[in-house]
Specification:
By secondary structure, this protein is an alpha+beta fold. The protein has three helices and three strands. It has two domains: 30 residues; 47 residues, Thrombin, subunit H (Beta Barrel). 8% of the residues are buried.
Length: 103
């Protein structure tokens, strides 16, 4: 009988023979991708308890109302510190928006 020799099983993980150089080439990407990845990691590393800044409070109030920010002051509401943001809406109404300063 003429039988073909048995083949060795293929490994589950194959290597292209490039070693770490091939891995580095795959992970490196373009400088823009590297910059975007670093920005994402930096944003994710910001602690959840970080305080909301004056500018962030103003931006949040502006997004909520669609209006123009007139003033931003820190105030106490109960036992919490809040930003008191005065906004004039596109309809000309003056509104006060409270943004939690604790995040």
């Amino acid at each position: 009988m003429n039988r073909a020799p048995a083949r060795a099983p293929r490994p589950a993980i194959r290597s292209d023979g490039g070693g770490w150089r091939a891995v580095r080439r795959r992970l490196a990407g373009t400088p823009a991708q590297l910059h975007a990845g670093c920005a994402l990691l930096l944003a994710l590393s910001t602690p959840a308890w970080a305080d909301v800044s004056r500018d962030q409070a103003a931006a949040a109030a502006q997004r909520q109302t669609g209006g123009r920010v007139l003033s931003v002051d820190k105030a106490e509401a109960g036992r919490r510190t809040v930003w008191r943001v005065k906004v004039v809406t596109p309809r000309g109404e003056v509104r006060v928006v409270f943004i939690d300063a604790g995040g």
